Amino acid sequence: MRSLLRRVPATTSQDLTRIGLGAVMTFAGISHLTFAREEFRAQVPSWQPFPEDLVVVGSGVAEIALGVSLIALPRYRRLTGVALAAFYVAVFPGNISQYVEGIDAFGLDTDAKRLGRLFGQPLLIAAALWGAGLPQRTRGSGQSGQSDHSEDPHTTTRSVG
Question: Which residue, 98, 96, 93, 86, is CA-closest to 125?
């Protein structure tokens, strides 16, 4: 846990990924609670034990919290990025269910489109981890596996911006 709270500098692409995912997740969360609520309800797997609306509202609130945190709390990007990756893993069974049960929603109206979405989920997980600064960059080819702050694993740095 301590390593997720340690501050390490982010690259520009990591910051852009973090901010982009934050914006997308915030929008998705708001859509869960408002204009797209019925479509999200249709995607809730029939086999899960909770009321559909509770799942949709809960996931929407989680998406807003994760999205806003990614944008507003860059200091905690590692923790929120890992949490977002875990969220993507947690909702993946719902995506599988949508494919298996042939549920049409959000333009995913063919098996090919629903299958394509399944292959997109690992990319979202990878993007969340990249935005979190993981895997951590290494310095020099001879120090594989060591961080930029290998001299003291508890060192914190100020990130620019």
Answer: 86
